[in-house]
Amino acid sequence: MPVGWFSAGWLLGAAVSLTVPTDRGRWYGSLIGRWGRWLWPALYFLLFFLGASGDAGNGVRLFGSEELFGLLCLPFYLVPALALYVGVLYVIRDLFRGLSSRKS
Predict the structure, then answer these.
(1) Three state DSSP letters for the chain
(2) Dihedral of the CA atoms 71, 73, 75, 80 (nearest 10)?
(3) How many angstroms separate the CA atoms of 34 and 21, rounded?
(4) CA dist., res. 104 & res. 102, Å (int)
(5) CA 100 to CA 79: how far, in whole Å?
(6) Which residues contact 69 (CB under 8 A, 6 or more apart)?
(7) Tens digits of per-residue pLDDT, 62-76?
(8) How confident is the model at residue 104 (pLDDT cuts 50, 70, 90)?
(9) Among 16, 38, 67, 97, whose CB has the most other CB atoms within 10 angstroms?
């Protein structure tokens, strides 16, 4: 799971920098990607070790709630969705760059 949060932080930074194609957007994207890669796994470990409980018969809970534990499993859905989004943005960006270079 920490690897998933690490990947999600990097992909979120790439998504922001590609969605807002200005210097400021690239700066925010690199900031989110750089700090999110380390802070999100650290937050995961902190929440898991402070609030996780349960056993094989009752399931795992975070601070007594199964729904909150589901949030810790968010990278299962977040990483593929962000990877698809970033991949599409890279293709669109490269298509526009290729078309604009052909016109020059």
Answers:
(1) CHHHHHHHHHHHHHHHHHHCCCHHHHHHHHHHHHHHHHHHHHHHHHHHHHHEEEECCCEEEECCEHHHHHHHCCHHHHHHHHHHHHHHHHHHHHHHHHHHHHHC
(2) -110
(3) 18
(4) 6
(5) 31
(6) 52, 60, 61, 62
(7) 888 888 888 888 888
(8) low
(9) 16
Q: Which two tokens stand for residue 89?
A: 């943005």
Encoding tokens for residue 20?
């807002």
Q: Is the pTM of this model over 0.90?
A: no
Predicted pLDDT of residue 69: 83
The band of 88, judged by pLDDT with boundaries at 50, 70 and 90, is: very high
